Amino acid sequence: TGLLALKARIDNMAQSIRYLTLSLHSHGIQDEETNKTIYREFEHLNAKLLSENQVLHEEIQNLTYIESAEIHRIEVVQQTKLTTLGSEIATQITKLNNTILRLSDYKIRLVGGDSNSGRVEVLYFGQWGTVCDDRFDNNDAKVVCRMLGKATTNAVAYGSNLAHFGRGTGPIYFQNLECTGSEPNLFSCPHNVLGYQNCHHHEDAGVHCG
């Protein structure tokens, strides 16, 4: 718009300069007065051309600034929308997990250790699976022990890709658990989408309750 109008004005002046140049060549030195007139017009147009170029440069800078500001505004708006959407999705996932928790017959057990320790396994919709040790810490161990009805004060998590109590089989239900230690069960803790994990059984988590 503004730039196109300026470009058109500059193009018109450039055409005028070309016309004057051709006129100058056609008259040569045979008509001194005409040549002087053409030179004066030529200089006048050159001065206008320089002025318009400066205006064009300033317009470009201004538009660049406006464009950058607009892009930043759009980015902020989109980021806000994505954050809101992410929050809504997280809320819906929590609601879905809670619904599934109410509907499913889930159990938890420790395998490969003793009565107070072992690999954590969860029975979910009729199938036993394990817990990934990514981010698995003592707070998560406390929740496991609470689910088992055992002492939580000195609960200890076992992880670090060692499968301390051996490797399990079947699905890996939980990954990136972030329990605070006060939750009633693992389903109430923040975690990745249930059952869709980038984890392997050498990362099966274990706990010791006490």
Helical residues, percent:
40-55%
User: What is the terminal-to-terminal distance?
Assistant: 75 Å
**Low-pLDDT residue intervals, each spanning 5 or more residues:** none
Shape, per Cα inertia axes: rod-shaped
Question: Helix count?
Answer: 3
What proportion of the residues form beta strands (DSSP E)?
5-15%
Q: Nearest-angstrom radius of gyration? A: 38 Å
Structure description:
It holds the Pfam family SRCR. InterPro entries: SRCR, SRCR-like_dom_sf. Residues 108-210 form the SRCR domain. This is SRCR domain-containing protein. Disulfide bonds join 179-189. By secondary structure, the chain is α+β, with helices and mostly antiparallel strands. It has 3 helices and 6 strands. It has helices spanning 2-27, 32-103, 138-147; strands at 107-114, 117-124, 127-131, 156-158, 172-174, 206-208. Strands 1, 2, 3, 4, 5 and 6 form a 6-stranded mixed beta sheet that branches. Strand 1 and strand 2 form a beta hairpin. Helix 1 (2-27) packs antiparallel against helix 2. The longest helix is centred in the N-terminal third of the chain and has 72 residues, at 32-103. The two termini are 75 Å apart.
Topology:
Elements: H1 2-27, H2 32-103, E1 107-114, E2 117-124, E3 127-131, H3 138-147, E4 156-158, E5 172-174, E6 206-208
Parallel strand pairs: 3-5
Antiparallel strand pairs: 1-2, 2-3, 2-6, 4-6
Protein name: SRCR domain-containing protein
Disulfide bonds: 179-189
Organism: Magallana gigas
What distinguishing features does this structure have?
six-stranded mixed β-sheet, glycoprotein, SRCR domain-containing protein, SRCR-like_dom_sf, 210 residues, SRCR, 14% strand, disulfide bond, alpha+beta, single chain
